[in-house]
Amino acid sequence: HEPVLFFEHKALYGVEGDVGDPGAMLPLGRAIVHGSGGRLLVIGYSRPFHAAMEALRDMEGDITFIDLATIKPLDAETLMEHFSRVGKALIVQDTPLQGSVGESVLRILSEAGEVHGRVRISSACDMPIPASGQLERQALLSAAQIRAAAIALMA
User: Fold this and answer.
1) Does residue 17 have a pLDDT over 90?
2) What is the rounded CA–CA span in Å between residue 102 and residue 83?
């Protein structure tokens, strides 16, 4: 048996919602697609994904959201299928950019064709995430940053 590591973002502890069939198993390596908008693809996982859905709720008809659900393996097939259809992508993450999941997603999208100017990674500040709650909130990706990046890509 292969070991499985489960990481959760502490900011999601209070989130409530439908979890579907409690007996169903989420297959590893399969992303979850929400919506079918054709102007922008928003890709993320954990807290930034939920923050993006909330920050862009009024534009959801224009956006396809992809929850990576698992980060190893990444669902390259779903990412490439939707990027080839939409052509612009915003990757959101609460980690520094260098060596991140967002960079891995960007590599996958680059295999689908030219990405210059059509893909942006919005991430946390490029530093270790502080333990202080106030400093942590300043370091993490905000809803305002997500919204500004999405609007810039759709312009």
Assistant:
1) no
2) 14
pLDDT digits (tens, 9 = 90+) for 40-81: 999 999 999 999 999 999 998 999 999 999 998 999 999 999
SS3 at position 37: coil
For the four alpha carbons of 102, 106, 107 and 109, in that order, the dihedral sign comes to positive
* Closest C-alpha among 70, 62, 131 to residue 101: 70
For residue 79, how many C-alpha atoms fall within 13 Å in the half-sphere facing its CB? 28
Residue with tokens 């900011």: 11
All residues at 6 or more sequence positions from 121 whose CB lies less than 8 Å from its CB, including other chains: 91, 93, 97, 100, 102, 103, 105, 106
